[in-house]
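dumping the sequnces here before i forget
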Amino acid sequence: MSTPAPAAARASAAAPQRRPRRQSRYLFLLPALVFLALFSVYPLVQLVRMSLSDVTASTLNTAWPFIGLENFQQGLASGQTGDALTRTAVFVLVVTVVGMVLGLAGAIALRTRGRWSNVLLAVMVFAWALPPVVNGSVWKFLFADAGLLNVAARAVGLTDTALPFLYDQYWALGAVAFVNSWAVIPFNALVFRAALLNIEPEVFEAAALDGASRWQEVRHIMVPSVRPTMLVLLVLTIVYGFRSFDFIYVMTYGGPGTATNTLPFLGYLQAFSRFDFGLGASTSVVAVLVVLVLAVLYARSISKEEKE
Amino acid sequence: MSRSAGPVNTIVKVLLSLMYGLPLLWILLTSFKSSADVFATDSTFVFRPVVTAYVEALDGALLDALQQSVVIAVGTTALTLAIAIPAGYGLARTRGWAVSVGLGLLIVLQMLPQTANVIPLFQIFGDWGLLDSTLGVVVADSALLVPFAVILMRPFFRAVPPQLEEAAAIDGASVLRSFFSVVLPVARNGVATTGTLVFLLAWGEFLYAVNFFLSPGTYPLSALLAQQVSAFGINWPGLMALAVLSSVPVLLVYSLTYRLLRDGLTVGAVK
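..and the predicted 3d for all of it:
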């Protein structure tokens, strides 16, 4: 391992052998190719077919009558798809802003070593590692009428009646979005922290000699040096917020009314509560199209970072 | 760097400590409360701890669910790694348009909302007789996690110097042999990080379990918890006891792999 030069020389001597070896490496891709074709790509094809057909619970496993774009038109005309898109946008905005800002602030605060920082980071990553269904249950309990948050709000005289965290249509969307950002902050803080730890200590020493304030350090050293990471993380956080459904399922199940029906969750409800699989599939296809746009953005931000 | 933490840093740390410390503490406290103490304001912090919730939760059904969770999580981890390790290596060592297309497809698959998969899979599994079977859930979970696992492992395989393999080839090792005895041991951190995450994600996955198992009798813990929390008239101490019991294996895995997660998690995200 410590002598790369002779190894490279030997490798060039073995050049004729390299070509078949490279090709044989394609065989390593075969299991994943077959498996994903069967259980990921084929379902997507079925999803698109379903979205163009009239499929209910009773016709699910028979021939599907083709109805073209009727499902999409129905979703748009009833206003459900549009409303869900608006709610999803608000949801993603809250998750992204809170997740990114507190993620970066957390990384800056936890960058220094010390017992408090170490323990806090470990607790945060543990919370991140817990199943969403566990975290969702706890937050549902904290948000309850007699839950901790309402007890605290009453104790400080903020309110006399219970705050309707999960029962009011505006509060509910915000509350579930907040819990989603709560769940993504530890990951973002960890990634930001790794980028911050890459900054040479000399840079901070030089800044200190020049009399830079702490805020100037953040603004002129830390933020610029995490900018490429920030771009990638931004797309990841947007995707995370967009595809999120488990906290919605656990905390509100889309309610009250339709208040927390984001686009992916609406598709799920249409298929598995109303048993209109065609309509649910059409809503999901819209969600898949949004993901395709995000994936292009992600691929771009990655290649940009690799260049920098 | 040597300067002491500023006031803003301290405020952020206090805020985060409250945000993450309190909920975790709350699960634990509530699980030891009696139903009467849960919503009594004077017993928020001071109460007589009881283990009623645990005694009630720990019955045969729970042990069945626990066993089901273990089977699903272990099975998914094994299947996912068996497929994703060779794929991650293959994508790290080959180049060209096919690889770019493959990576792009993996990124898209990884980003898809799970609700877009559950609808067609429900129909396909119905056709193939995979509904109401543990194998079906394991396969669906693996399909969900393979793209993620490949993307996370690829940079670890790329970091293995190709010269090592070339040296092994000179010594007469086949591609397969040098993969197992040279590449895999060097990339073991990546495999361990990925395996841990896949296990944790499979442990918590509930949407497939709720929809593909036709009766709660065969649910894993996560699905049981999801079903109870969305029901009316929730028994909070019982629910929190269930939450604590579902979290114990996570704590176990987590305490063994924290360093690995802390340092390895960030590799796949940005590279």
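The domain at 52-306 of chain A is CATH 1.10.3720.10 (MetI-like fold).
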